[in-house]
Specification:
By secondary structure, the protein is of the alpha+beta class. It is 22% helix and 31% strand. The protein has a single domain, classed as Alpha-Beta Plaits, CATH 3.30.70.100. It has two helices and six strands; from the N terminus they run βαββαβββ.
Length: 121
């Protein structure tokens, strides 16, 4: 089955970060994980150390893993849910956000311990 990543960049409404974090962790992520095809997710926060200095546009990154043979149907299901009992939204989430879906093009590369690499699923 093809493996996909949904990459989401978000910010909280200014001054409402704690409310945003609580909603995201305790409401939104469980709601997303109930969508058939979604198998895992992890949130990240902006790291102060960066390879090159640049403006910080997004405070949070979420990477969701999707396993499905019908990606469009899975995404349609996801997008039909916001604002319903199946996916309760919060006004602590800033309106501007970005989301992109990528499909795995290679296995995962990892060091093999001998100076080379190994590939794994």
């Amino acid at each position: 089955m093809p493996r996909h990543k949904l990459v989401v960049l978000t910010n909280p409404v200014e001054g409402r970060e704690q409310e945003f974090d609580d909603w995201y962790m305790n409401t939104h992520m469980p709601d997303v994980m109930r969508v058939p095809g979604f198998v895992s997710g992890q949130r990240f926060t902006w790291a102060h150390a960066q390879a090159k200095p640049h403006a910080q546009t997004w405070r949070y990154l979420t990477i969701l893993e999707i396993d499905t043979d019908d990606l469009q149907a899975t995404l349609d299901d996801l997008m039909a849910r916001p604002g319903t009992a199946a996916m309760r939204m919060s006004d602590a989430l800033a309106e501007q956000r970005l989301a992109y879906v990528f499909t795995a093009a290679t296995p995962v590369f990892a060091p093999d311990g001998a100076g080379g690499i190994t590939l794994r699923d």
